[in-house]
């Protein structure tokens, strides 16, 4: 029943109310007991009086009128009693409705309370269950049995998978476990090793397997791991001992591995973008095709690391040690390599466009097929470097010592070689189109088959040079000394 359908309840100043609802007072019994006899006495007395004094026709009419008036008053009384009865019925219905509504509200409130109590009980039970599972699994990690520790790790992973709000805590626990001190097992023990030492080594081997499992769980749910990713997970493995671990294709983007020991670890194809690796030990690590873009490798040791095809674009490498590392086909676009020690480092077909190599010592290094386009190499040491088939288009090579270098088939389009030392330099078949070769001593430079289209050779000394097969179309030869030079007929435009 709506509020519009409720019985109307009006009250007058003389009608008492209870809780905002009108209440009819019962007619006192003495009013009824006294009122009826009085009315009868009045009627009888009036008739007796009229009969005692005689009644003519006019008086009879008055009597009839009085009788009618009396009957009318009686009718009014009966009507009033009927209205009062109707009003009493309506108020009774209203009281019953309000009682029913109160009962419904009470029942609803009771049901809601019961439901909330049940929900709270379920929540408390679930929380207790989660706490018990977490505590039990965490305790298992402290067991001296490898199988128990492994069971605890898998239990924690399952718990985190089912309860996202626990992932951060569980991730932190796994990271803390891996940051604990650890001594790796020896790969091979001498034949005369006693049994006790062998048993201790076996324990370390089992612990190493346990740590590998913990690491697998973290990387399995790390960034860039697709639907398995736990957004709440933050990987913090500062100074952790992860040497020799298998991290192939691991998803570690944005992780903190500063100071970690990753020597000999296999990180082939791993996603290490924006990873903190400051002061980390990556000696002999396998990083083939790994993504290290924008990674922080300041002060890291990468000696003899395999970085073949790795991406190191815009990585921070200040004071990193890359001696003996293999950076063949690696991408170091826009990377700052100033003052790095790259002795014995392989840079074959390495992409270095946009990198900063100022002041870098590349003496004797293998840069075969490397891309050094548009680089400022004025302060770079290239003496004895292997640059066959390298790309040096648009490079600034002013004043460099390039004597005795093998630059065959090298792309030097638009390069600036003003003031460079090119004595005994082999430029056979090199593309020097549009290059600046002004005022150079080229008497001992081999330029056979070189492409010198539009090159600026103004004032250069080419006396006695064999320029057979060289393309000098559009070359600037003003003040160039070509006395005794061997030129094909119609080869140069004066």
What keywords describe this structure?
disordered N terminus; 5 helices; 2 strands; 494 residues; elongated; mainly alpha; two-stranded antiparallel ribbon
Could you explain the architecture of this structure?
The chain has 494 residues and is mainly alpha-helical. The chain is 33% helix and 1% strand. The chain is built from five helices and two strands. The N and C termini lie far apart (110 Å). It has a two-stranded antiparallel sheet. Residues 1-14 have low confidence and may be disordered. It is elongated. Among the domains are: 17-140; 142-184 and 197-236. Residues 7-20 have a biased composition (Low complexity). Residues 195-210 have a biased composition (Basic and acidic residues). The chain crosses the membrane at residues 30-51, 63-83. Pfam families: Pentapeptide. Residues 1-20, 187-211 are annotated as: Disordered.
The oligomeric state of the chains shown is single chain
Tell me the helix content. Answer: 25-40%
Return Rg in Å.
52 Å
**N-to-C order of helices and strands:** EEHHHHH
Outline the biggest β-sheet: 2 strands, antiparallel
- Count every beta strand, where a strand is a DSSP E run of 2 or more residues: 2
Task: Name the shape in a single word.
Answer: elongated
Q: Report the span from N to C terminus.
A: 110 Å
